[in-house]
What does this fold into?
Amino acid sequence: MAGLLLAIELAQPGFDGLLFAAIGALLVSILTAIIPISLILQMILFLLVTAIGTIWLTRWSARRNPNPERLRQREDIAEVLTPMAAGGEGRVRWHGQSWAASSIDLETKIDAGDQVVVMGRDGTKLQVLPLPQR
It folds into this structure.
């Protein structure tokens, strides 16, 4: 059983949880060969190894591969260089360069030094929204 699960895991391009099921099956079969264990205890050990291994791998992978949405949010933040009236225009520093920008928020004035989120681009002019204050 463990060998079959390992072969299926190696044949597939993505991870779907079979790796720790195969390891759990292998550990339970080795343990059962050494000492006699009831069927219920074998199933519990198999489920524990599979669940704990899958949870560990998911957390490890999340730390190793940060959320692309969070990275994208950092890339879309610009600093206001000149104040902008509500719905007005000004300049922002985005990716180290000064850009012309227009505020698409028709109600909020944006001061110099504030941070804005770049929502889009119209030619060489950025469309920005004020970043909510924390």
Notes: The beta strands are 77-80, 89-94, 97-103, 115-122, 125-130. The CA atoms of residues 78 and 95 lie 8 Å apart. The mean pLDDT is 83. The chain has two domains: 2-64, 72-130.
